């Protein structure tokens, strides 16, 4: 980012040179586009550790991230006013999305079950309220520190390394691809801004085809 800013400023004659010139990038384009997701035995171990974790609230944060494919920040900031359990729809307002437009997300049966259970005991506008009140006595939504601590416990118990909370979103994308969903469906489901982002899972679309071909050979 700094290199781009100084490069632009140098072209405009605002600075004599770009001080970032010659400094290697922290990672290459291929690495930045890497898609990590939970699958196979790692997914089974993660799920077992998730179900065994004592913090039920963060457990359901992670489950909703998986079942909806949405970002951690959006799940934490989910409000009951944006959830329609009867219609099975969660609408994220444009002020909270990267593309700055409202995003409607269908809720799976598993996601609706979690939300219905939480709604029965809801005492605030937030699906995941904070434990502590603010200085003014107001209740906000759960902060990121609590899920972060829970994530460290769960991944350590599962023996899963180099996986971030955001990779739950990638895992949801991989599920869609393995079920044969095309790029347009994945782009809509995950709220990706461009088809290219949804295309990162395109190699997984062949898995159902490979399974079918394998069954045909028996």
Helix content: 40-55%
Widest beta sheet: strand line-up: 1-2-3
Give the count of helical stretches. Answer: 11
Element-by-element helix/strand order = HHHHHEEEHHHHHH
Mean pLDDT: 81
Q: Supply the helix-strand structural class.
A: mainly alpha
How many extended strands?
Answer: 3
Q: Which sheet architecture does the biggest sheet show? A: 3 strands, antiparallel
Spans of at least 5 consecutive residues with low confidence: 27-32
Determine the N-to-C terminus distance: 54 Å
Q: Say what oligomer this is.
A: single chain
Overall 3D shape: globular
Radius of gyration: 21 Å
Strand content: under 5%
What's the quick description here?
The chain has helices at 2-11, 29-32, 40-52, 56-68, 72-76, 109-120, 145-158, 167-178, 183-190, 195-198, 206-216, and strands at 83-84, 89-92, 103-106. The protein is mainly alpha-helical.
